[in-house]
Fold this sequence. Notes:
Bound molecules: zinc ion
Strand order of the largest sheet: 1-2-6-5-4-3-7-9-8
Helix content: 25-40%
Number of domains: 1
Order of helices and strands: EEHEEEEHEHHHEEH
CATH superfamily: Class II aldolase/adducin N-terminal domain
CATH class: Alpha Beta
CATH architecture: 3-Layer(aba) Sandwich
Amino acid sequence: MTSESRTTGAPEGVIQYTVSHRDRALAPARFGDLGAELAAWRSIFAGLAIVGQRADRYDGAGYGNVSGRVGPFPGARGARAFVVSGSQTGGRACVTLNDFALVRRYEPTLNRVESEGLIKPSSESMTHGAIYDLGPHIRFVFHVHCPLIWRAAGRMGLPVSDARVPYGTPGMAREIVRLSRETALLERGILAMGGHEDGVITFGRTPSEAGGILMESLAAAHRSAFDETGKACAQDAVSRRVRPSEGRRG
Length: 250
Ligand SMILES: [Zn+2]
């Protein structure tokens, strides 16, 4: 069964583009290993609350998602198939392969995604696709919501997308390309999403590379807080409370 859906003007976390979706389970024999890798890192991020769902954050919408490109060959731009977190699964304590979807094609200019799975793909799939289109070496993309990194992005010299560009839109895909040309995005493997509160994306050749960049950046953000305030606090990674010295946006 294939269905199409579209929602516009939607709040954070809700699919904003046309999804042509086939309701069919991902085969464990083909996608099980990739699903296990993604579920492992997603569980680490959920434990840190940089993936999740809370009533007091983002109007209660689920946040954060992970993806991995389906190998071995990358395919053409717009068709670098990847497995990604299902829409609104951020709050789930446990995930199975059925909580992921396969994105076969993504067309930023047409604002359209073609997918399959028992669940529709994350609302941020277009942004994941735009990252894969930067180069065939990129195989994993992680998106989390971390206020500490996001607010420290300027001090840390991270590439930051234009605050006027909303997430999950054709504009965001263009913004990713601009950042790859004008900043050290491809070398650093991380960006902060200026127009998407607390949004951070890392990517790499392996899940360890993408996850390692994220963990190193979190440590750097804690160090930056320590330099400013004389202390580093575990809760600061996810706290939306803005201390006076951190009031500016990164
Ligand atoms: Zn997000």
